[in-house]
Batch of 4 targets.
Target 1
Amino acid sequence: MEKPIVVANWKATKTIKETIEWVKDAKPSLGGIDYADIVICSPFTSLPALASLLDKSNVKVGAQNVSRFKKGAYTGEVTVEMLDGLAQYCIVGHSERRKYFGEKDDDVIEKVKNLLEHSITPVLCVSNLDQLDSYIERGQMIIQEAEKIIFVYEPPTAISGGGAYRPENPEEANNNAGKIEQKIGKEIAVIYGGSVNPSNVALFCSQTNIKGVLPGQASTDSDTFLSLLNAIRPSGLVK
Ligand code: PGA
């Protein structure tokens, strides 16, 4: 059985100081985990600290966004070149970026292209199958380079948003993850995101089409995140 991928999305939480504290609390336990591939996606400002604190460890670092543009006159943007050496993964197309920042499918595709050119793994959020169709229509590399992409099936209605957990039914999520893989037409990594927490993570990870999870709220507190990882220790997993 392949290791589940666990991508923590801290969203807009954590100062540099809080990042250092989180790592201090979690690193000793995280270091002993060999049954999951762990990625922590922090705000840009915390990336240098995170990359240095987790250097040569089993835990990888990711960003939560990247500019669709390369170097140039784009005030306030963080380009893919700037992520080089800091992040090995980058979340793209999150529904919160669409909702609050007007991000469109064209932007998402440009970001995926930039990341692939720089060998940073895109963690591509897919809200539904229509959105996947639109991505494919705009960028054939979504299929051609699908092995280099982590697809996240993340229905916006299931996102906790820092409030109450409201996950999608795991069987339904499994079904939809399977449809994403079918549409891409090759073996790919599809993970699930939306209210994943220590109580439901094993259920999601035991679904045949779901290769891992993307917890938001449940990743920001180090103890909760470690409980989540404990819940998917292989002994507890049936696949
Ligand atoms: P959540 O967030 O786990 O708090 O629902 C997931 C996400 O939106 O990335």
Target 2
Amino acid sequence: MRKKIIAGNWKMNKTVEEAVELATAVKRELADCTEVDVVLCPPFTALKSVSDVVSETQIAVGSQNMSSEDEGAYTGEICHTMLKELFVRYVILGHSERREYYKETDEWINKKVIKALEKNLRPILCVGETLEERESGNMEKVVELQVREGLKGVSADAYTELVIAYEPVWAIGTGKTASAEQAQEVHAFIRATVKDMVGAEAADAVRIQYGGSMKPANAAELLGQPDIDGGLIGGAALDAGSFAEIVKAGM
Ligand code: PEP
């Protein structure tokens, strides 16, 4: 049995004051939630404050990116030591917005995944196809490549720590959600790919989240699919009530 994991990706939203307000509201709803792993991923500037709010609860904190390097002359970057100092436990890596706007490559994302695991941070590796790739019949090819390249060199036993987020790019922030069947099909395909890479035990253990306009109205159906082990939530995570409803749909 895989425990479901719901993470809120707040993206470039919320000042420190607003983040504290949102985290406090989420805490009110979910502080004692043990049935589902809950993760809040505020912007870097609010990590410390959000960690303070949720300390001594079951809620974990994640960052939205991490440098592949340890320290040094990398202007604008944030490394693992800095994140761990703020009690960060998860790191979202390879989000499609980072791939598209900041030209992050599979090779670079893989370096970050390896670094995160080496430093005991849990990567949430995002993969997913664009609408054009889906419509041209290349969805499987694209997703398989991102999984294989993003997780290259990762040992089978690390799959209990890492999370894969399937996020079809055409469903992110668009209000269009993959149907539960469409999502389940890709999740099963990702699990089969992991099986081929590192074996059945790791494939069975790895948690695969769905992301892309997940909201209270569609969460239960998506989360009811056999290979959907949680959600990576963008827009709906900015409202504590909606986020809590999604988490409760996963219980
Ligand atoms: C995301 O960006 O990870 C995401 C899933 O966003 P949204 O829920 O807004 O589609």
Target 3
Amino acid sequence: METSSDQIRIRVQGLMRARMASLALLADRWVERTPPDFSQKRFLEFAEDFYTHHRGFSGINWIDPQGIVRWVYPGESNEHFIGNSVSEHLNSWTQDTSQKTGTSLKYLATPCEDLVQGGLGFHTFWPLVYNGRVQGYLNGVFQVKQVMDICLAENILTEFWISIYEADRLIYTNEEQGHSNAEKHNLHVLQEIRFPGKTWKLKLFPNAALYPPKVIRNPGLLAFGMFISAMLSLILYFLIHRMQMYRKARDYAFHEVGERKLAQEALKKNEKKLEALLKELADKNAELETFVFSVSHDLKTPIVTIEGFMGALREDFGNLIPEDCERYLNYIGDATRKMDTLINDLLELSRIGRLTVKKTEFPFAELMEEVIAGLKPRIKAKNVQVIVSKGLPLVYGEKKRLIQVMENLLSNAIKYIGKENPSPRIEVGVREQDDQKVIFVKDNGIGIEEIYFEKIFQVFQRLPSAKRIEEGTGIGLAIVKRIIEYHGGRVWVESEPGEGATFFFTLKNKEN
Ligand code: ADP
């Protein structure tokens, strides 16, 4: 719309400025000739030439110095103008002092009015001055509609309503009666058209047919439309929101995947490190076991020597040995035996897992019979009641090693049953825990403080109470732990001092 209004302004301004310039030229040329010819013939020649070559004039007339119209061109539409007086215009013009100075002195344009030739238009007057005297006036008549018809393109006329105002007076419009006034909807554009002596206001607004007016013909339909559009906006909003959520979730997932990948890579690296460490540990353990084994063996030789020479001493000098000396020899014998047991136990510990026999499946009750048979003298000596549960399970493992386990646990139970115990009692049984069979050895002996629950399974760890009671090497439970772990199981103790102790262990089931 802005462009169209500009186009109209440029065209109207251009046409009118060109016509004004033509008239000024005509007036100049007329008086240029010496002596000038102010004859009707000359006027008609000029007028005809201008009228035919410069469209837009409704008429070009000659007015005498008194302001009376004398000659007209073209004759047909202007004849009844002959004899009319325009002195009223000319008087106001000559009285207006501002018009007498500068270039405007030569030119006058009347306000728009009803023309004698018909329609609304205006007159322009150009004085022909020769020898300091006005010889007459050249009068160009313009009909606004004719000017607009020349200037307005067909499409502009159909697409827009155009109104032209001079001051507040409407001097041109293509607007039809009764059409909707788009101006009300602030759709119009205002422009100023300026050419010598005139300032017109151009108002342009869209043709109602092309831009349907905002007349609500069907309020129900409009409400429905608005409702649908609101719903669509809402759906769109939710879709966008969802999309943003999905995008965020996707970014987060990408991030997570990336993090996980990194974590997995780190884990793999750590696993490899761990594997290497475990292998190193296994190698070191094997090395240590071999060392312990060889050291134990080497230690056995001097023990055997000591024992051998003690025997020889008794054999060769038995009668000569005084009583005190015999006592000392007994001390040496006890210490040597203790040393021998210790070395035997250490040798045993180092053998576990190194010297293996094939694992078999057998009833645990069968094993118990053997163990109890071996411990019978000690059980009797301490008058201990041993109860073996009937429901002992089938187990899978190295029978000899598992016998070692039960021997150690039962002999400990007997050892630490307590000297003053009125009814010494040991119970061997099984219970179900986390879908696993747990075998236990329970006694009502001196018990163990909780702080030692872990420690007692380490080599050479003996409790102060145990040291007072009986002799031992502190290796028995270490052997038990070693054998159970070698069988893929776990061993632990539950106890309270003075309330007895219960040792539990699990074994791995036979692999299929
Ligand atoms: P030890 O040769 O001293 O018996 P063990 O390794 O078999 O060595 O036992 C370690 C320590 O655990 C024992 O010295 C004793 O203090 C304690 N202990 C083991 N079994 C029992 C038990 N049934 N009751 C109380 N204390 C026990």
Target 4
Amino acid sequence: MSAELWNSAVRVLETNWSGDHMVPSRKLYPHQWSWDAAFIAIGLAYVNPTRAWRDLRSLFEAQWPDGRVPHIVFDPATAEADYFPGPGFWDVPAYANRPARGSTGIVQPPMHAIAAWDVYRHAAAHGANCAQEARTELEWLYPRLVAQQEYLTGRRNVGGGGLVSIVHPWESGLDNSPAWDEAMANVPADLSLLTTYKRRDLDVSAAAHRPTDVDYARYVGLVLTYRAEGYDDHDLLDRHAFAVECPSFNAIMAGAELSLAQIAGVLGLAAEAAAHRERAQRITAAIVKRLWNPQSRTFHALDVKTGKLSPEHCVSGLMPLMLPDLPAEHVEAIMTEARSSRFGLEGLPAPSYDRTAPGFDTMRYWRGPLWINVNWLLRRGLLVHGFRDEAEDLRTAMVRLVHRNDHFEYFHPITGEGLGAPAFSWTAALSLDLLADRSVPAYARAA
Ligand code: 9WN
């Protein structure tokens, strides 16, 4: 099974390589996506570290002068009609040496420091040339990764409590999660926007899987207001209709600081390494302070505009498990939630949403189906806190699922059937990692 899965994953990554970057899927997502590039690099490192670095470099070459890393870098060879919302809709001005309309103006979770550190660790196994290349790439990336963190902790500290606010559900990567429902209800939904702008996702995938038109009208409206201000972040709390602190995004922020500490260590920057570790601790403490609900005993998304925590139990609430400084009480609570009938880590990996919720939908995007990338993060959390048996069960469940059902974008949370785009890059890349890497993150607690 291992060789067959390995070879099929390598084939997917070969097909989806576009010269200097990887597309998530040829048909549905024909450009480069930010957090996809990070997950992809982690797996590519085993088979082609040069491409893994190239993919990360392509993305960071499109970094904005203010430090933001755009959620999509558009491929100029791909027609506007091949993805909505495309470059013309985002209408981003030229910056640095990049032409206008080269990217979007929003971000995605900053997974890249975690990826860069993993690629670096694994590249050494490919011999001296790859080790030298890894060092050079790490030196190039480090200040850019730091600038990304500074943008997010600075301009995006909309709530003032030390966490990052996302200003669009697409920034979370968990786009259509019920975690945003209450906050999104306050965003105007102008359905007439969908006559001006035509959705393309429905031409290539089933409507029952995708967000509704009302959701899309809100997504489009949010971009239009951000775009109208030149994607400027001043006074977002008053000006912008959506500002939410997501437990998953912020856990990844803190995880990135820990990986930056490792990177700074390798680059001989001891004082910076210590500062990164401290920032990770501060973000962890802020997640506990701001996103924990002692009644529901899980982490929720916080609507910064209303000050209310979302009532929904989503897989994003389990993600702070990846943080080594998470207090024992919260670790235990996440484990209880992860083992419960809501997310039941038995047999199949965890679904994106509470199985027991009335709105649990086995088909619809981020409202039930299960994704390999979030389960990969969950496994990381299990390892960080020494839950080795559960981590191994989850690893085998993911490997079995992809082997049986192929490299789909996401999977049916009851039958395991593959859903969404086939030949999906991060599923393939992370399968390579799950087959190859049994190691434990350097900052894991002793079991
Ligand atoms: C919008 C590319 C991306 C992922 C996201 C996933 C989906 C896009 C869409 O696809 O989002 O960015 O069109 O729905 O939700 O996590 O990065 O794979």
